[in-house]
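Fold this sequence, please.
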Amino acid sequence: MSKGSDQILHFTAPSEPEGRPRLDKFLSSQTQIVSRTRLKSLIESGNVVVAGKKVTEPSHRVNSGAKILVMIPPTRPANLEAQDIHLDVVHEDDDLIVINKPADLVVHPAPGNPDKTLVNALIARCGDSLSGIGGETRPGIVHRLDKGTSGLLVAAKNDQAHRHLSKQFADHSLDRAYLAVVWRVPSKRSGTIEGAIGRNPRDRKKMAIVNRGGKPAVTHFLRRRKLGDWASLVECRLETGRTHQIRVHMASIGHPVVGDQIYGGRTTKSIRQSAPDFCEKVFKLRRQALHAYQLGFTHPSSGERVLFEQELPTDIQVLL
């Protein structure tokens, strides 16, 4: 195809012994050119034709022998400015970059944070080598951390690495562990929290454990250290990666993350009376005490398993 025109992919749905496959899953199994997230976006935006008809539902069931066309619009440059922002680089090679994100750095421009983000910093550092995602030429952000969460984050520097890493996130084959200071002491030293996470029906700006419409989420926690009777240091390992997952799950069992102003991380009168110095440190923290301290994955090029670790930042260490 010439530059600036749509790329068109052709597929034929085979007969499936277990019934008609979902459109998004079938396409994802047939191509390594486009990530599953991108395929879903293409379907929803009307760029997929099944048996001569435009389909916009990723869950559409495909009949045996159906001819499928996927039209991929040309990548458009993102209107993002390169900004020389210091990055704490833990590892970098031709395929990816791993950084230790500070708590005050937003990952991607959004309303309220139009610039001075990780993406602006990556554009300045890596330039044209960065992977495209979502139809725009911009850094391949494979996953995100909340603004108030510090720690390890990986970004892809080419499309092949982006697809490889995205697949690992999709099939939950990565190792991701966080350290968090939570209120009070969990009665069990370890446990597993399961609960589908979706938009809070009473406040769409927040996430919550919901009975309908949410995505499955599993968090494993281990109590590392007691901080008196008022707080604990816990390790959380994710099987899934939902928005605000640790914050929502820990709050659901009565142990919200210290400093979290959205999901109930406020002090009680009894805690303020028994631990005034600790509460004063929490007030000065001004963010949730959550740090992504471990990140492991299979390297896109070498196929080797790599593991990165980053100790707690000073502001959380002060709490301990």
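The mean pLDDT is 87. Helices lie at 23-30, 36-44, 118-126, 159-170, 245-252, 269-274, 276-285, 314-319.
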